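chain below, 198 aa
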Amino acid sequence: MKRLITLPLYGLVLLAGLLALLLGSNLHTWNRLTSESPIAELTFTKTGPREYDATIAFGDFCTAQTYRLIGEHWRLDAQFLKWRPWANLLGFDAMYRIERLGGRYLAVADENTEAHLAHALHSTKLPDLTEIMGRYKGRLSPVDTFYGSSVYDAMDELHVFRVYRSQSGLLVRKQPLAGSGAAGGGFTIPIDTSCPDE
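prediction:
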């Protein structure tokens, strides 16, 4: 009688363990394929009609640089390397290289006729690992695709814009600057820069 009770108990423990393993596997898969990390932060100061000073921090987030932009929108371009899903699950995060910051017009007619201004944000002096890895494609390669990815939004003095790297491209979120009086709540993701004291 005792053996008959013990066998179903072992079966229940085994089933519970299997369910926990499947749940953990699904959570790991979801976490890996939806992983995001901040790669740039931008703020704007209007200096004239359709003219702004754009301040951007990226890389280690310790040093911000300011560039003049023309237009109603800003646009950030990057080269992007997307891994195959199985490589994501093994811990490979999408690779990127921030390339260019520029202005953009709301109206297509203005885009075709008005002045443009763009700024290169990467150095050509060092070898680019993203581009090197992007060359290796094939059935056994962990590289899915290598392409350009861009985000844009309206230039707005009352908000800070954070650009994120996802596993499939760039995305942007904005939130009100502290003390700007802009409406909106939401949630903040702090960026720990760990910058050395100057």
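The chain has a mean pLDDT of 80. The longest strand covers residues 37-48.
thats it, cya
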